[in-house]
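USER:
Try writing one entry.

ASSISTANT:
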Amino acid sequence: MRTVRFGIIGCGMMGREFASAAARWLHLPEMTVRPEIVAICNRTLSAPKIAWFRENVPTIEQVTSDYRKLLDNPKVEAVYIAVPHNLHEEFYVAALAAGKHLMGEKPFGIDRKASDAILAAVRKHPECFVRCASQFMFFPAVQRIGRMIEAGAFGRIIEVNAGFLHCSDLNPQKPINWKRMVEYNGVYGSMGDLGSHACTVPLRAGWVPRNVRAVLSNIVRQRPDGQSGMAPCETWDNAALLCETEDPASGSVFPLTLRIERIAPGEKNNWYVEIMGTKASVKYSLKETNTLRLLEYAPGGEQSWQRIDTGHEVTFPSITAGISQFGLCDAILQMWAAFLYELETAATPVRFAGCVTPEESALWHRLFTAALESQATGTTVSLAKDTRIRDKVKRGQAH
């Protein structure tokens, strides 16, 4: 089995999730490639998270607070970079210049300018394999939805709704953190952090928006600063995007609605997608992780929703029984399997079993930039001029 030696830059929640996935690689008996974490980098080496890595990942040989030293390490073949959005351009471009394969966190740049710079670096270094983390596409129900899209099972698309809803920011006493600060999170607000997840299934399907009318809300305008004072909270809390979108399979045009909310009362971590078609419709939400709601329709027949309980029905086979429940840690493991499988074979088993591409991330940057303009002007903003990347994604060539 081939071993790909990784460095992790940013040892927070998602860095630890990757370490956990790498430790559970024995769950994937048919993989011919595996990750090994040999280096970590974090701004503060005294943080408890560093002790956690030292205690739980015995393969680590390098611990540094300077990402450049990690990139200079010849033993590191690939990197996972999970840092605040304002550092994406600098770190991602440097990783590619160092010849490292890259899994980066969304939104792949703090803004469109940063996104364009990262995409230019990707094109400059075709020898580097580059993808963006997005685990929700790997839940079994979503993989089934992907297979239905590939098979044309929905008929003519009537409408698509997708989103990501959080509730924790409803508490006005929650202290401010970097995701509520423009200088670190960027002007997209919730769109940059949550919206990229909402875009994954529509963009992989080739449903690229032609235009957008956006309504953005800054609901809690200041938060405790952790020093007995208050700090301005200038990022957008919630975003509602209505897009006119074309289905490349049929040429039909339909509404795509995206809801991206940090203040959604009663929600925890609810990623969802709904597709309504003339032959079939589906509804899926993380509220019911292992349940797919399906309506299949024949002319003159009944219109009734089925409830299908999905099990551990994964693209990359696992030792876990197929009848078992599936959870977030399993989705992260499948995402990393997809990354290494495609790195090793230069292909994906099926269209929806590949990680998000740089081209797909560039499209959500164009969408979110247009949404900001729509909010500022109160108008519908066209995205039609971005034809090269858009057409590549619509043809399914960007994965």
Q: What stands out?
A: The radius of gyration is 21 Å. The CA atoms of residues 97 and 277 lie 45 Å apart. The mean pLDDT is 94. The first helix runs from residue 13 to 23.
